[in-house]
From TrEMBL:
Positions of transmembrane segments: 12-31, 43-68
GO biological process terms, semicolon-separated: cAMP biosynthetic process
Presence of keyword Membrane: yes
Domain DAC: 84-245
The protein's role, per its UniProt record: Catalyzes the condensation of 2 ATP molecules into cyclic di-AMP (c-di-AMP), a second messenger used to regulate differing processes in different bacteria.
EC number of the protein: 2.7.7.85
Entry protein name: Diadenylate cyclase
Signal peptide positions (record): none
Cross-referenced SUPFAM superfamilies: YojJ-like
Source organism of this protein record: Peptococcus niger
Length: 273
């Protein structure tokens, strides 16, 4: 503690305040990122361990303190191994930032609206027949890693084709369809499952996979439940559950048409995909 105090500058310059504010912001973001995940429990456990270790040193319990210090050292090696998937996810979230997004061709509003109508056609038909559906609509984040897990299609988006893909017991019905622009890029794709503990247990893996992808990308994911026929949309790691047709349409319009309109002018020019 004393050495820490000695390390502090005698005069506080604006740069020191900026330094502290950046650290505070990073800690806040880490807490926000791990909240509701397995890592939250681990962080609490480590804090308790550090508190015990400091307390044992303070009152002179040298053997206990030695054990606790060794455990902490061991954790430095164990944590990256145990939490490799979570750390990968956290880095992916970091990469979700605008810096890494690709440039896209801007589309006319009516072309996006027409595509939404075709997707809505499939969602409505599937909700009626209680057919499980998982449709990913790409925005700016790159999704090649996920399209590569499925069967490549490169077909124009149409209600008939989407309906056909999700017919139960057909080769492509399992997994997600990924739409990018006016193309169905792939079907039967595997998406990363969300490990958020706050997701209702009533929702199964289809919903968890939909939410999972939106935690690591800016894609919008439409889900129809096979059990209830209800339509949900996952976006930014959150699920809007049991939406009416009107609400679904409105959500997609806002997420896709208005999103397109909000792009700064330099993003509307395609350079390289
Ligand atoms: N990681 C994944 N990526 C893509 N699709 C997945 C993934 N996990 C599950 N699915 C799809 O979800 C189906 C299983 O759905 P499950 O019944 O577990 O989920 P659910 O959310 O309860 O959906 P429903 O309400 O439709 O039953 C699988 O057959 C598969 O098509």
């Amino acid at each position: 503690m004393q050495s820490f105090m000695q390390g502090l500058p005698a005069i506080v310059y604006p740069i020191n305040i900026l330094d502290i504010l950046i650290i505070a912001f990073v800690i806040y973001k880490i807490i926000e990122m791990i909240s509701g995940t397995r890592a939250e429990q681990l962080a609490k456990g480590i804090l308790i361990l550090i508190a015990f270790s400091a307390f044992s040193e303070l009152i002179g319990l040298s053997t206990i303190n030695w054990v606790l210090v060794q455990v902490q050292r061991m954790l430095i090696v164990a944590i990256p191994v145990i939490f490799a998937p979570e750390m990968r996810r956290a880095l992916e979230k970091l990469g979700k930032g605008k810096v890494w997004r690709r440039r896209r061709v801007s589309e006319a509003e009516d072309a996006v609206t027409r595509r939404i109508d075709r997707i809505m056609g499939c969602l409505q038909a599937s909700a009626g027949t209680k057919t499980g559906v998982l449709i990913v609509i790409a925005r700016e984040s790159r999704l090649e890693e996920y399209t590569a897990t499925g069967i490549q299609l490169d077909a124009l988006v149409s209600t008939a084709l989407l309906n056909n893909i999700f017919v139960i017991n057909t080769p492509l019905h399992d997994g997600a369809v990924i739409i990018d622009g006016d193309r169905i890029v792939a079907a039967s794709c595997y998406l990363p499952l969300s490990d958020n503990r706050n997701i209702s247990k009533a929702l199964g893996t289809r919903h968890r996979a939909g939410i999972g992808l939106t935690e690591v990308s800016d894609a919008v994911v439409c889900i129809v439940s096979e059990e209830t026929g209800s339509i949900s949309i996952a976006c930014d790691g959150k699920l809007s559950y049991d939406l009416s047709f009107k609400e679904t349409n409105q959500f997609l319009q806002e997420a896709l048409v208005q999103h397109e309109g909000q792009l700064p002018f330099w993003k509307k020019w395609q350079v390289f995909q």
